[in-house]
Amino acid sequence: MATAAARWNHVWVGTETGILKGVNLQRKQAANFTAGGQPRREEAVSALCWGTGGETQILVGCADRTVKHFSTEDGIFQGQRHCPGGEGIFRGLAQTDGTLITCVDSGILRVWCDNDKNTSSDPLLELRVGPGVCRMRQDPAHPHVVATGGKENALKMWDLQGSEEPVFRAKNVRNDWLDLRVPIWDQDIQFLPGSQKLVTCTGYHQVRVYDPASPQRRPVLETTYGEYPLTAMTLTPGGNSVIVGNTHGQLAEIDLRQGRLLGCLKGLAGSVRGLQCHPSKPLLASCGLDRVLRIHRIQNPRGLEHKVYLKSQLNCLLLSGRDNWEDEPQEPQEPSKVPLEDTETDELWASLEAAAKRKLSDLEQTQGALQTRRRKKKRPGSTSP
Amino acid sequence: MAKAGEKSSSSWKKSLKRKAAAEEIQEAAGAGDGATESGVQPPKAAAFPPGFSISEIKNKQRRHLMFTRWKQQQRKEKLAAKKKLKKEREALGDKAPPKPVPKTIDNQRVYDETTVDPNDEEVAYDESTDEFASYFNKQTSPKILITTSDRPHGRTVRLCEQLSTVIPNSHVYYRRGLALKKIIPQCIAREFTDLIVINEDRKTPNGLILSHLPNGPTAHFKMSSVRLRKEIKRRGKDPTEHIPEIILNNFTTRLGHSIGRMFASLFPHNPQFIGRQVATFHNQRDYIFFRFHRYIFRSEKKVGIQELGPRFTIKLRSLQKGTFDSKYGEYEWVHKVCAYCFKKLIFKVWDKRVGGERASGIANGCWA
């Protein structure tokens, strides 16, 4: 049951105990998925990203340096690969063109070939980014461009197809009013859509915007929020603001045009570990050390929509970007519609049965295509009384 | 009229008052049946015009009189109703309907979703591999360092000394203005397992920081109602060196479990029942009451207790993952005062739950 409905989960959350949880907000259910059947703290999930093929595959980066492939269609872990090199946990995971990009704490960024046939343990490319990395993020518009940043590790933008030197290396701000060097601690990085700009949030409660296109290597905009380290950040659907979360569970929306605080979101009681906004709807998913997944509505009105208690500490999350959140009840109704429709012609009936048999035999291939075909055939049938 | 007036002005005797009142009533109602009711009958049938209330009487003495009479009447009626109900119950015997349960704040509480189910495997795994696992697997035994904030006054110093007699294998050290972040690596090197810091404000202890040492969580409590040994009435003699037993009450939610385990890991595993000493951490409505008693069983069911050591009440303010780092540490739970959720009486409880915003005794619905 859980595996069949896994594709309809809206949010996927990785926990400290190594369990991948899929949460369905329509049905208000949460399901646990583990690779080995039992949770293991050595497999604590530290990074999650979507795999190839839309949102049908998830890449799960675990603390024991393995990257596991999870299929949302089937709800099972399909395979894993070990990504050695460097020390520490994964700080960033991305995939592009059949390659897997990983970055670990000690600053080793590696590009691996991710085909099923070729799981060699040699990376295609290795870069040394600098120690103390806190985040590695891939540009959604240019999949071969990544940015890294960390504690005493300034923001650097790398082109994986280009040279071994970073494309953009940020410069630290000027000394403060006591003429002391301002420390650097980039906790999260986001690429702003529609331009080359990057936003970072720091452990010293600053939010900074960098523009590689301008000759200025220092931040173009800097604002502060709160008194506690900002741990997670996400872009809002409008593109003009970001939402940041800190170690006290405070969430704030900050406008990047003026550097102003737009508003706060209440509810979290623990450190925010994962934040993601839906690309079109005004929804924000947040998870943290208080073991609860929350979905907030960002505008009109700002408030809490859903709250799900998941028993382990949550490390990272992936929010499904699909638009049809309410469409999924169609799926279980389809098998029941088949016997009821007596007005169908024999040809249609036969083709429907054939489609069902094909679905049962081939679990992996062309499932999506079959479903769309089914739905198209259903439409003339469903309008008839 | 004049006669009634004289009587009301000099009226301190009830009978006189009653007569005067009766006459007033009759005058107010009009002399309908005045012939038969001439001040002898008790003033039961008050023939007031409808909508009249006692508060409209301008004369304070008469108003007071009327009010006391009304109150007495109410009390009589209530007693009569109770007696009647009791008689009916006795008459029905077994068939009597069950007594209605009175509404209390505890009764009105909404079930907390983070309450730990004893059969829950995920939580069991989480707890078996958390920072206290080494204590609960009996691999380490506790060694506690007790200290205070800088320059403590008498009460705090005495509280520390008394706490060190209550908690076995604990050492009290003077703070000497050292930074906690520098003390902690030294403690870890000397194999301490827990650090207790008693914070003091205006000569009284008002805060407690409990940090589990190798890399464990740090809990920050607010402390109140501290009573040292000499302030406890009817107390027993000083506690002995025996290892006490521990009672943890009402630590039912996930947060409560974490805190309960923190307290449990302060004491060694093997309580010496010969000592008959017990330390109790009782959680009720998010306040934890600490008591230290000596008990003796007089028979199978009767037990006598003597309160020994110090007593205090603590309330959790924050639980931070990692050792003490209030500025850059990550918090697992922070107490937040949320003023907008007054709707339901849910307590963030241990009886508690993870996270939670409360507004002075009334907790919220947004779970946290």
Describe this structure in words.
The complex is a heterodimer of chains A (385) and B (368). Chain A is mainly β. Chain A is 11% helix and 41% strand. Chain A is globular. Chain A starts with 10 loop residues before the first strand and ends with a helix. Residues 330-341 and 366-385 of chain A have low confidence and may be disordered. Chain B is α/β, with parallel strands linked by helices and 368 residues long. In chain B, strands 1, 2, 3, 4, 5, 6, 7, 8, 9, 10 and 11 form an eleven-stranded mixed β-sheet that branches. Chain B has a three-stranded mixed β-sheet with strand order 12-13-14, with no helix packed on it. Residues 1-11, 28-39 and 339-368 of chain B have low confidence and may be disordered. Classes of the chains: A mainly beta (385), B alpha/beta (368). Chain A binds chain B through residues 17, 19, 32, 38-39, 41, 203, 227-229, 231, 247-249, 266-271, 289-292, 304, 307, 309, 311-313, and chain B through 113-114, 120, 122-123, 125-126, 129, 254, 321, 327-334, 336, 338, 340, 354-357, 366-368.
In short:
Chain A has 385 residues and is mainly beta. Chain A has helices at residues 330-340, 346-361, 367-383, and strands spanning 11-15, 20-24, 29-33, 45-50, 57-62, 66-71, 76-82, 90-96, 99-104, 108-113, 125-128, 133-138, 145-150, 153-159, 168-169, 186-191, 198-202, 206-210, 221-224, 230-235, 241-246, 251-255, 260-265, 272-277, 283-288, 292-297, 303-309, 314-319.
Can you write the helix and strand succession of chain B as a string? HHHHHEHEHEEEEHEEEEEEEE
Poorly predicted residue ranges of chain A: 330-341, 366-385
CATH topology-level name of the domain at 40-271 in chain A: Methylamine Dehydrogenase, Chain H
Tally of separate helices of chain B: 8
Q: Given the helix and strand composition of chain B, which structural class is it?
A: alpha/beta
User: Roughly what is the average pLDDT of chain B, rounded to an integer?
Assistant: 82
Largest sheet of chain B: 11 strands, mixed
CATH class placement of the domain at 40-271 in chain A: Mainly Beta
Question: What structural class do you assign from the helix and strand content of chain A?
Answer: mainly beta
Output the number of helix runs of chain A.
Answer: 3
Q: Describe the global form of chain A.
A: globular
Share in helix of chain A = 10-25%
Radius of gyration of chain A: 23 Å
Q: CA-to-CA gap between the ends of chain B?
A: 70 Å
Quaternary class: heterodimer
Q: What is the CATH superfamily classification of the domain at 40-271 in chain A? A: YVTN repeat-like/Quinoprotein amine dehydrogenase
Q: Catalogue the unreliable spans of chain B.
A: 1-11, 28-39, 339-368
Sheet with most strands of chain A: 4 strands, antiparallel
Subcellular location (chain A): Nucleus, Nucleolus
Pfam families (chain A): WD40
Main location (chain A): nucleus
GO cellular component, one term (chain A): nucleolus
